[in-house]
Structure formats: C-alpha cells, structure tokens
Amino acid sequence: MPTSNRLATRANAQRLFQAGIAAADPYLAVKHCLSVSRQSLEILLDDGVQTRYGDWSSVHLIAFGKAACAMAKAAQELLPAHLLASKGLVVTNYDNVSPIDTIDVLGAGHPFPDANGLLAAQRIAEQARRAPANDLVLVLVSGGGSALIPCPVAGISLQDKIDTTGLLLASGATINEINCVRKHLSQLKGGGLARLIAPADCHALILSDVLGDDLSAIASGPTVPDSSTYADAVALLTNKKLWQRLPLTVQKHLQQGAEGRLDETPKPNNPLFNTTGHTLIGSNGISLKAVHQAALALGYECLIYSEQLTGIASEQARQLAKTAKDMLTNGLTRPTAVLAGGETTVMLTGNGKGGRNQEMALAFAIAARECGLNSPWVFLSGGTDGRDGPTDAAGGLVDNGTLQRMVASGIDPQAALDNNDSYTALKHSQDLLTTGATGTNVADLQILLLHPHS
Length: 454
Fold this sequence. Notes:
- The protein is α/β, with parallel strands linked by helices.
- The chain has helices at residues 3-22, 26-33, 68-78, 115-130, 145-148, 158-170, 175-183, 192-197, 230-239, 248-258, 284-297, 313-329, 356-370, 402-408, 413-418, 422-428, and strands at 34-37, 40-44, 51-53, 59-64, 88-93, 103-108, 136-141, 201-207, 276-282, 301-309, 336-342, 377-383, 395-399, 432-433, 444-450.
- The protein folds into two domains: 3-20 and 285-450, MOFRL domain (glycerate kinase, domain 1, 3-Layer(aba) Sandwich); 26-151 and 186-228 and 265-282, Glycerate kinase, MOFRL-like N-terminal domain (Rossmann fold), CATH 3.40.50.
- It has a six-stranded parallel sheet with strand order 6-5-4-7-8-9, sandwiched between helices. Strands 10-11-15-12-13-14 form a six-stranded mixed sheet, sandwiched between helices. A three-stranded antiparallel sheet has the order 1-2-3.
- The longest helix has 20 residues, at 3-22.
- The mean pLDDT is 94.
C-alpha cells in the first residue's frame, strides 16, 4: 500500500474509533434522561418512554467513574437549585478531573485504589447515610468506579484491597471475577451503597463498561442486587491458586463470610430495592453500532466479528488474523471493515509495560505476518476511556509496515510480546493510539480495515 493510502486508511480507523467514543458521550446521555416538569424531576427509564417521578423534597447528587464529571455537569445544569439538597459530590480518575459549579470534584486512583479514593468513598458513604426518607439520591455511575471509591469493610486496610486487586489483575481474571471479590470486601459495592441510601429513594443513571450490560458488574454494582456470594469469592481465589497469596485479613474476612458469620451483600429479594431504580444510558453495544454506521458511510463493507470479544488478547488477535486471511482467500474484493467490541485480558508473564489493547495490536501484527496476511490492512484496538493499562495510550494502531519499523528501531516484536512490553514496541514503531482521556468508558473497540486491491 502506498504511503498516502496507508495514512488515509489509518486516519479512517481513527475516525471510526472516534465515532464510537462520541456515541458514548455521557453529557448528552444524561441530558436525554432527565427533565424537569412542574418544578419536579422526571427520569427516563430503560424503555425510553416511561418515566420515574416522585414528589421528592430534595435531590442529592453523587457521581463516580471515569465519566463522572461530564455526567454530573449535565445533571447540575438540569436540576433546579431549589431541588438540590447540598453540594454534589463527584469522584473520577485524575486525568478526567474538571471543576463544576456547586459540586465537589475529587480525583482518585485507577486502576489501583489509593488514599484519595478511600477518603472520597467515605464522603460518599456519609452523604448517602444523611439522605432522609422522601429525598432522592441520584447516583451517576460509569466505568472505573470499582477502583475509584474503595471503602473496605472493617478489619481490611486499603493496602490489603490494593494487593488483592493486583493479584487478580495479574492472574488474567475477568472483570466479573474481580468484582465478585471486591463486592465482598467493600461497604459500597454489591448493593452496599443502596443499603446506605435507604430509606431515601435511589435512582442510578448507568454508563456501562461491561459486556452484556450486567448492572451488578458495572462499578461492582453499588446500587443493584448482588447474586454472588462469599463462597463464590473463596472458590474463585482458590481455583486461581491465589488464596495463599492473599493478605491474611482478606482470607479471614472471606472465610467468615463463607461460613455464614457475616451479612451477605443485598440479594434481589431485599425490600430496599423497592425504592431503588436505574436507567442504562450508554454501552459498548451502542458504540459498536455507531462505528458500524460510520464505516458504511465511508464506503466499507462491514462485518461484526464479535459483540462481546473476551479472552486472552494475544489469542484473540491470532484468531482475528486467521479470519481475515480466510476472508481474503475466499475472494474478498471490496474494502471491508471487520469490527468488534469487548474487553480482553492479558496473562502477565513478563515485566514490560502495556495494556490489553496494545498487546492485542502487537500480537495481531505478528499473527498477520505468520499467517500470510499480505493484502494491505490496518488494525486498531483501543479503550474508549483513552487509557489502556497503566500507560498514556488508548491502545495500538498497526499496519503492514509495523514489524519492519520495529525491527529497524532495534525492537524484537516477539520478544516484546513475550515480555508484555507492547507499549515500548509500539512506541518505537510509532503505532501507539493516543487520544488523551475521553471522559467516557464503555470498554474497548477493535477495527480491522482490509483493502484487498490497494
């Protein structure tokens, strides 16, 4: 592919990625769901037709997650001053901190909890407890909330939770598996926030970063019932051979819970959920549809490869490369966009730097060479929050020339992959996808553009 065509195709991939991010705009989503009628608040429900309306004396505003600032700003602009009970409270990751009138905005650590997050979580718990009956607590939830508001149960320190989360992340545990454990170490997660809010009413506007939009998994489900148990958490940690590596305080707490000596997280039949509601305002699926429409508008044939792409990032990259090769072998003749949305995982075997999207991009470039994917292609894998792992990149954007550029800069691509050092490799080949913090988070998007006759 001539350089001009390659650059144009790379620009197309980035344009499609931005279309997916725009579809998850949290500010517009909240504006769409809230309205004021007769000087009272109405909340649009999931069906897009019915609304929730209450004669609430006051509204307490709490927001947490990577999209919290944008969501809170929209709510603050809509809510009449006489309805607001006090200053709202927002907790978000440091990159997304932005001042908002009449709202306290707090920065906290992500993906690992930190001391600022602990203080913020304690303030959320205090505000939730203060809300009286006949008031509404409006909770704005987005991805990243699990790490941003750590509120450990008595006897477990913040460092214990950080160590436990780190072990789970390094093991390749899924987000649901990680959340199962975190819910049973927290006062807020797994319906804990809803329990603190009662007897006041609660309604959550939720921006989903979880595949399938399981509300109990988004930010570890602070306002919805939890079906997982202490016994599930113990079994998970045992099966992953992590139990003996856990802090002793965590072992003791989970074991006591599994033996029935501690209260479980609130289950679906708990009456506190009679006054608790929610509305799903954005998701990975919605963003994937937007990417699909944008690709059609650019003249691409489109194939939705997966709406819930999970598994080990490098393995999924190999499967996708093989699929692309098969498509070309079977006579693909027109420019085609192969699209996916999801959230893969990384099995850490090295000590390099990167994230799941960067790892998938590097692995795809290697797999494309190995399976003989010779027609021009561009592959993008990116996190919609603009942050992939503990790096300043959203992911990777690779093409036919990526490996050649790496080798020319002194990088062994396979060695980098084996060392989980995708960031270094992609930086040397100038293939990092860098967007900055986007203010939203609906998991990841993958975009493969094939140009069989370029």
